[in-house]
Amino acid sequence: MPFPKDFLWGCATAAGQVEGGALEDGRTPSIWDTFAAIPGKTYMGQTPAVACDSYHRFDRDLDNMKKLGLNAYRMSISWSRVLPEGTGPLNQKGVDYYKRCFEKLNEAGITPAVTLYHWDLPQVLEDKGGWVNRDSIEWFGEYAEKMFRTFGDVVPMWATVNEPIATYVGYAIGAFAPGRHNEAEGNQARHNILVAHGKGVEAFRAVNPKDSKIGIVIDIWKRHALTDSQADHDLMVDEDERNWKFYTDPVLGGRYSDYILEHLEREGTLMHIGPDDLRLMHLPIDFYGLNVYNRVPVTTDRQARADYTQGGNFMNNASEYYPKAISDAVRMINKMYDLKIPIYVTENGTYAVGDEPVGPDGIICDDDRIRYINGFLSELETVINEGCDVRGYFLWSLMDNFEWSAAYNYRFGIQSLNRETLQTEWKKSAYFYRDFIRRARGL
Ligand code: NOJ
User: Do 24 and 48 meet the contact criterion of CB atoms below 8 Å apart?
Assistant: First the structure.
């Protein structure tokens, strides 16, 4: 059976990675503008100040979406563009920009799937403690409510938060903005953002935009033990618990696991959990957004690691080619939480490091990316045929963009972007995706 007729075929981007226009028309810096300006934090000190210039070139992006045959586009709103003080008055120019984007997408028959928070906290709020401060829950609630009131009639699909694990990477590990290194703060920040998600859902139900739905995006990187040893099993469990399960458990399951509560307690880094927090985190949502890129093999055994490295199926970027990551994740989440809501694959894709080879026809020849997308889509088709309710696929990404700490060195796009002219060009994978969609949609 082919993909369902009304399946959403999209590409995904995020404001902080494509917009640029960092300080234009009243926008204030986000934590990523601040972080990228600190020497050594991003590849070659590159910043998102210009990025893909989508703030001025949305029509270019739209034109490419049309040519690709997309019927959906996942993008995010820059919080500090619409609320330069983080809370309080709306910035009309920022509002106008998004209004136009959403209207143009709708006119073109492309469903806007909009994320409220894709890692770009307004710096003014970071200055007040950021996600570690419990007030962040209220800040986000206010922002969410304002967005639903402003754009509820033109946006049929909302995600509160994208990959909440990024707060942990930003506050505990320091590899992402705001670059703090404190485990207890990292745990508090990631807890707070999940409660903030709940506040967003609550605001959505109160505003109740017509014909619109709300969800969250959580990434799954399933650990696989490379041997049958107890040590490898324990390592797999530990990493699963501390990574994706930290988020899916309370949101989809209604509670943190005993494992995580006991371990964080023992380690002295357990977050404060307010009396209403679990209810908020577990408020019913309309869909689950799955970001999936790969599995993560784990082992304590050096020989097993070496065997895997030598015998595995790897791509040019040295990451494993493992398309079952997508079907494994869909089946696993459905089963673990007895999911009654549809899944959208909100991100999937692969990257090249640095320039990609150009073929004799002058087109970037990214065969690895084509193989990757094809493999993942074929696995996706398999689980849909098994009866799993997956309703859309968003390829990351429409074009090469600001890949956070790896900046412009990691290329995730199906289009390249000339950093001097800011013009985009289709890679071979863009033609492949266009043809795939045409067949799937019967165009
Ligand atoms: C996760 C994030 O949501 C997105 O911002 C990032 O660029 C991609 N995956 C690729 O790493």
Answer: no
